[in-house]
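Box S1 | Example of a co-folding query
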Amino acid sequence: MTDFLALAQPGVQQLSPYVPGKPVDELARELDLDPASIVKLASNENPLGPSPKALEAIRAELAELTRYPDGNGFELKSRLAACCAVQVNQVTLGNGSNDILDLVARAYLAPGLNAVFSQYAFAVYPIATQAVGAQGKVVPAQDYGHDLEAMLVAIDENTRVVFIANPNNPTGTWFGPEALERFLSQVPSNVLVVLDEAYIEYAEGDELPDGLKYLARYDNLLVSRTFSKAYGLAALRVGYALSSAQIADVLNRVRQPFNVNSLALAAAYATLDDGDYLTQSRQLNDAGMAQLEVGLSALGLSWVPSKGNFIAVDFARDTAAINQALLRAGVIVRPVAGYGMPNFLRVSIGLPAENARFLEALAEVLRT
Ligand SMILES: *Cc1c(COP(=O)(O)O)cnc(C)c1O
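Box S1 (continued) | Returned holo structure for pyridoxal-5'-phosphate
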């Protein structure tokens, strides 16, 4: 029989598939639990549920499902351009911001070229990079966060892209405006900096720079954002990039013609119109983070300080058994051994009752 793994391009052979948070229904099936009794704090989803305005917009769109969506996403792009104070031709829409990362890799990376990213950085960077036969250059982290100075040193003549996440997932670590400025001012102008701001709405005005402020000065900067996290639309898959018009034009050449579906376009637009939604998401997250920090300290645990909607908890020992015990208690969190952090579990911030349920289950697991 032909070995089709051996025929895959070498970068793909070396990849492991992305491991998502365990779905509620899967755990319910495995342990014969009532899905309603399960708490999932594993995928950094918004626990609020979608904006009512998004649901209304989706219902209005349903009758049009036989039609292709607007392949140019005109209305959403115009709306984003206005919000972000850029031109419409600087906006690229993606099937989730994951799609944006892939578009960048397909347009700018190839065998013989490399992308620089940090140890413990988001798992999609190596996947996007190796999928196109390019090499990932992993730079050791500093206190679990990006070491931007070391990343600068790692850039060589074959580097075309640097991926940086602020805040980063799964660590929640962040860097401030001075560090970003120092970094951008030293990256060679022919290297594209992808600043992944998937969680920025949770952290805005809070020691973190707003990547958009740097677009005018650095035409090698691309800022990627998503509707999956604070905007609560993870299932619909919609994200966007802001960059120079030229980079947006290049990404548009490799984009699938209808990469964002019509329900996602309508829901994203409507959520931007719901000013209260983002404020509520942010408040809920701040309160939940405080709740988890109090509960974790009471259990004598430490964690990596986080500006996201999740927290990486340090158990100072392998967490596989703790994770299994939490699953048996109907609580799904995220093991991060695949990220090289076997002693940690990443916990997403949930509703107050969900956070409490996690803390109670964890206390019980650690007692036994
Ligand atoms: C969740 C996440 C994304 C992308 O999510 P999409 O649902 O594809 O928009 C991108 N970057 C980071 C760091 C993330 O955690």
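The mean pLDDT is 96. The CA atoms of residues 79 and 157 lie 38 Å apart.
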